[in-house]
Amino acid sequence: MTQNQASPSTAPAVPALSIRDLRKTYDNKVEALKGVSLDVAEGDFFALLGPNGAGKSTLIGIVSSLVNLTSGSVQVHGIDLRRDRSAAMRMIGLVPQEINFNTFEQPLDILVNYAGFYGVSRDEAIVRAEEELKRAQLWDKARMMSRTLSGGMKRRLMIARAMMTRPRLLILDEPTAGVDIEIRRGMWQTLREINAAGTTIILTTHYLEEAEYLCRNLAIIDRGTIVAQGPMRQLLARLDVEGFVLDIDGELPAQLPDIEGTIVVARDDHTLDIEMPRAMDLNRVFGVLDQAGIRVRSMRTKSNRLEELFVRMVAAGDAAPDDPGPAQVPDNTRTGTSAGGQA
């Protein structure tokens, strides 16, 4: 390079999905999205989390062009959804919650016909279908009637179908709902392979351990607003408390001891739930329990970290008008109070 030559500049990477001030108000005046903005980087495995009615389905519906937005912008790999819908849609593969293929067709035909809708030649579609059915561990079911497949197989077939168009962005709406843990973990491996091959994935799920295991970044949406977003590890680092379940020898006393800075609740006569600061010495907790005649037989983590973060972020907002308020402790449940508040 000569002295007069300009050094090459690195253009900023275009996100796989870029949403700005996205709003959606339905005809019944329900404001489902209230100015949502987020970016999903190319190649990311991204979790979109939120309680029922938070706006997840509306957001996904808009991105996949099934729902019209009220205002704001959506870009898929730099293509504006409103200006060039067809080009944007060619970038996206969608796996909805509901099984929506013809169960009286064979898996091979379902995949080949789907690819044909997007202009893929039949010869190429057959090659792709074999590849995707093998990846989904369904090749031996290729010529069976789809209605004979198990629920987990149907879910895997939905993912295989979405991959037939070689999407750069794959959106999965509750892909493992209703399947057992063994099948779910097999699907996790498939999704990781798809992501490792370069496809950006956006996942919505109510299985929070699934999001923590698979995803690198996440956003939590509640009542149409993003309440937290960023790298998974960074957001989980916000947690300053830990929850444990303690199995007790014998029966618990009628009055639980006070342990400063903790919340102690009797789950039943032989089990304690305890929430404590991460920096607190467990030996001090065990010491207080021992003085009260409570012998700990075993201990396990109360919940995964993402679940705790999710609950705290959603609970931080004001209660919705139809929200019955915080759950009440049953009358027959004994609690211990602390300086930090009441259990």
TrEMBL record:
Keywords, ordered alphabetically: ATP-binding, Nucleotide-binding, Transport
- Key word ATP-binding present: yes
The keyword ATP-binding is assigned to this record: yes
Region spans: Disordered: 317-343
Q: Where is the ABC transporter domain?
A: 17-248
Q: Which GO terms describe its molecular function?
A: ATP binding; ATP hydrolysis activity
Under Gene3D superfamilies, the record lists:
P-loop containing nucleotide triphosphate hydrolases
Q: Which PANTHER family match?
A: ABC TRANSPORTER ATP-BINDING PROTEIN, ABC-TYPE MULTIDRUG TRANSPORT SYSTEM, ATPASE COMPONENT
Q: What is this protein called?
A: ABC-2 type transport system ATP-binding protein
Organism from which the protein derives: Lysobacter spongiicola DSM 21749
Question: What phylogenetic lineage does the species belong to?
Answer: Bacteria, Pseudomonadati, Pseudomonadota, Gammaproteobacteria, Lysobacterales
